[in-house]
Structures are given as structure tokens and as C-alpha cells.
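[step 3/7] fold_predict: job queued, chain A
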Amino acid sequence: MTTRRAILLALLTFGCAAIVAGPSCVQTFPSRVSKIVVPFPAGGPTDLLARLVSQRLSSILGQGVIVENEPGAGGRTGSQAVARANPDGYTLLLGGTNSNAMTRALYKNLNYDPIKDFAPVASIATDSNALVITPSVPARTIGELVQYAKDNPGKLVSGAALGIFPHFALELLKVRTEIDMIFVPYKGGAPALTDLLGAQIHMGAAAKSVLLPYIQAGKIRALAVTSADRWPELPQVPTMHESGFAGYPSEIWFGLLAPAATPAPIVARLNTAINECLRSSEVRESFAKLGLEMKIGTPGDFAAAIAVDAREWEGIVKETGIRLE
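[step 4/7] structure written:
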């Protein structure tokens, strides 16, 4: 009996993945602290979202939810760690467009499948980007920037984390306008923004949730936004479509994903908790201040969004010619 009790205790401690998922499994989840892995450095939009959600989610689940940054390899280090984690619902990835939808088309050699190795749990929000420059660059529109770059080949320096939306936003501009602009790779969005604010680079792109305060303070200048419509906070700044760039990628999806074998009842429990979190007044207010569009839905809704995104990014990766090892 002692041995049997020890085995049962071990199963409960390390999750329900090793036993048949059922009502009893759901009732005991969660029984300990959960972890949201952010595959990028602290300070970026992914990290910001994880921290906004985690505190409220802890209250709803009745157990702690911590955020752990595991940056590296363009988001692949943290993503792969979650893909290989115990599928018990206690290790989640804050992923979506950057970490899952575009990765399969972008990287030549992956040790995991960025879509098949994950179970979408819940979408959280969508965010759009802006293309921005330092005030020292004499341009107020995309057209003026292109002309300046052509008059000064090789003078402009842009920068972003490799293999995510801002990188493609800058590279698409370069490819479609045939301008000579140097690109500097960064490990994350936060260090790229730091160098942009310090005028170490001249141009960047990043999410609204990160850039908006700096644009409004006049520390950087927005030339265009990637969203389908103009940002209400910056009605004078045109969209990329209005600037003559039809078919430009418009938004980034963010959401939580679990390892693929996570039992469906646990995924459903997490989805319910996350949606409750998103409906709370404090989270809604925080998202509104950042200009994020909240996305409440089922695991199936999030899976469908990732699938659509993945198809779109296959074309974008092909157009830019960007392929990473």
C-alpha cells in the first residue's frame, strides 16, 4: 500500500498527463504554481502582456502564475522548452504570430514543430505595429523617408529582433522600395527600442503597446501604422495601405499555448480562466491604455487564427527572401 500511495502522489505532483484525463483530473487542476514562458527578453510586448495577465489569472485559478523569460534564437529557445515540457497545463507559452505562425516558414532547421507541437489554449489580444524614426531624420512620411534613403544610400540604419514582425515590417519596406538601408539584428524588441531612443539606429518598428507613449512624447516619429485603420490616438498618421503599400501585414496575434499532449479538459479549464481574466475591469482598462484589441474566444478560435496567420506568412517570408538557420 505504501508503494501504491507513493505512485499516486507522484502522478498528482507531476500532473495528469500520465493518466486518463477526466473530471477528477480537472478538479485537481491547478494544485501548484503555473508558469508562462515568454520567449523574448523582458520589456517587449510579449513580456508586457504576460505580466498583465498573470496576476489576475493567479487570483482566478487560486494558485500562483509566474512569468519566466527564456529568450534566445528569435524566440525558439523558450518555445522549444514549452513544446518539450510535461503536458500537464503548468507550463504555457505566450506565443502567437511571432513564435508560432511565422516560424515554420522562416527557419530552415527546427527541432520542433511550432504549430503541431502546441495546443492553443486561448487568444489574448492583437496588436499592430508602427514604422518609426528618430527625430533627426528629415522625413514625415514613408515617401519622404524613401526619397531620403535613395539620396543617402547606406546612411540609414534600422534594427529589430530577428525573425519577428518588426524585422519583416522593415525588410518589406526595403524590398518594395529598393532602398539601401543597413539592418542591425537584436535579441529582443526592448534593446532595439533603447538604441532607437538613443539614436544609435535611425529606424525601427514595434508594437503599439510599446511605442505609443514614446510617439506621443515626441521622442520618436511615426511615419505609418500597419493596422487596417489609423490608430485613434494618432489620427494624423496614415496606414501602410494609405501610404501605397497594399497587402502589408497588419497585426500580431498573442495568446497562450500548452504542449500538444495537454489533456483537453485542462485546456478547457485554462481557457475559461483566461477569458474570465480578460473580462475583468482592471485587465480591460490596462489593455485599453496600451491600445490592445482584446480577443476572447475558444481554443478552436485561436487555432484557426494561427492557421490563417501561418498561410499569410509563408507568402511574406517568400517575398522578403529572409530565411534563418
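[step 5/7] annotate
DSSP finds 13 helices and eleven strands in the chain.
The longest helix spans residues 299-320.
exit 0
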